[in-house]
Design a protein that fits this description.
single chain; about 300 residues; eight-stranded parallel beta barrel; globular; IolE/XylAMocC-like; Xyl_isomerase-like_sf
Length: about 300
């Protein structure tokens, strides 16, 4: 299997330097974010859509380094109750799908989003437990009035452009575990699938290889991203603790370099599960460990993947 990297983990690098570094570590594939000021550090999204010469230049630079763009990522909240914010993210998603189609990139990654609790809502309302009657009513309203109507349109747009969408199973979004992903996929169709990032499944206590086997062909993309539970904080707050990422020492879980939260034996089982279901895209490294430099973490992750993934 091929190894990929989420290019935006090296934000601040010059593009050619980043490509050279990744090639040196036997990385073959890229996921490129479109949600910042620049795409691939040096290009603007609207310019890439309008100018075929810029698209060709980007592809030539990537290919000259021996790499391939296999996904574009535009993570945000297309269901935000603030209509302006929702529209901006929906437009970004639309443009990202259009760019993927122009460049022959098969997958766009995104969050499913999180609506408010009513027409008058100002802020998202993530319902993860039905302890009170109101929660069930809110969840039903969200899916019938916001989630399904938007993703029916967005899914059709993707299908028209021959691009699939991989939704990250992400707490805070209405799609955060295998069952919510399949609920949306069953309603919209196979153009919608999962981005399986184990880091956010670990702290939900989800059996990650089991989840992969359960999702089967609904797995559209895989991120190689580790996390670690911090047991001293679990005793105090559990896993649901709204501590900012910058205050990671106070969080009950933290992103780790691949292999530093879960050892090689876990990752062997995980990679075996994605091979078992017929997944053929790349294993994409996402690095966010506060204890390791991004480049160092990517190098360590790539070495681990080389040691355990099938060579074909």
């Amino acid at each position: 299997m091929r190894t990929g990297v989420f290019l935006d983990c090296l934000r601040g690098w010059a593009l050619d330097d980043a490509l050279s570094f990744l090639a040196q570590h036997n990385v073959q594939c890229l996921e490129v974010g479109t949600f910042g000021e620049y795409v691939a550090f040096e290009y603007r999204l609207d310019d890439l859509l309008a100018d075929g010469r810029q698209r060709k230049e980007l592809l030539n630079r990537v290919e000259a380094a021996g790499l391939e763009i296999t996904a574009f990522g535009c993570y945000g909240n297309p269901l935000h109750p603030d209509a302006g914010r929702a529209l901006r993210q929906q437009n970004l998603f639309t443009k990202t799908v259009e760019l993927a189609a122009l460049l022959g990139v098969p997958t766009v990654t995104e969050f499913a989003g999180c609506p408010g609790d009513s027409e008058q809502a100002r802020f998202p309302n993530w319902i993860s437990i039905l302890a009170l009657d109101d929660f069930a009513k809110i969840l039903d309203w969200q899916w019938s009035e916001r989630v399904l109507p938007y993703w029916e349109r967005a899914g059709a747009f993707c299908a028209d452009h021959d691009v699939q969408v991989a939704l990250e199973l992400y707490p805070g979004s209405v799609v955060f575990n295998p069952s919510t992903l399949l609920r949306l996929r069953d309603a919209i169709g196979p153009v919608v699938g999962a981005l399986v990032d184990p880091s956010h499944l670990f702290w939900q206590q989800i059996d990650v290889p089991g989840a992969v086997r359960y999702l089967g062909p609904a797995v559209h993309r895989v991120h190689m991203n580790d996390s670690q539970l911090r047991t001293h904080r679990l005793a105090e707050v559990g896993v649901l603790s709204p501590v900012p990422g910058a205050d990671w020492t106070e969080r009950p879980w933290v992103h780790r370099t691949l292999g530093f939260g879960h050892g090689a034996e876990f990752w062997k089982d995980f990679v075996s599960s994605v091979v078992e279901i017929g997944y053929s895209a790349d294993l994409c490294i996402e690095q966010g460990d506060p204890l390791y430099d991004d480049a160092d973490g990517i190098a360590k992750a790539a070495a681990l993947i080389r040691s355990i993934a099938p060579s074909n």
